[in-house]
């Protein structure tokens, strides 16, 4: 398992459009991918569950990946989250 702590800098947080981008990117990998905020942890491959985390700008989240392509998944999705601007 690999993990990265990420500061969400997107001014509008992870509302529907950016969350959908994360879900679509996550589904390209066979690894299990989770995003945690505080004590809540949800699959990054499920839009509804991801939205339930209520991630806003300035939140610190933990992205964790486990599986055969975990390093690629972590690198790609972390870069996506850090680059969100909408």
TrEMBL record:
Gene3D superfamilies to which the protein is assigned, alphabetical: HPr-like
Regions that span the bilayer: none
InterPro entries in alphabetical order: HPr, HPr-like, HPr-like_sf
Record keyword DNA repair present: no
Origin superkingdom: Bacteria
Keywords from the named record: Sugar transport, Transport
Cited function: General (non sugar-specific) component of the phosphoenolpyruvate-dependent sugar phosphotransferase system (sugar PTS). This major carbohydrate active-transport system catalyzes the phosphorylation of incoming sugar substrates concomitantly with their translocation across the cell membrane. The phosphoryl group from phosphoenolpyruvate (PEP) is transferred to the phosphoryl carrier protein HPr by enzyme I. Phospho-HPr then transfers it to the PTS EIIA domain.
Protein name as annotated: Phosphocarrier protein HPr
Gene source species: Teretinema zuelzerae
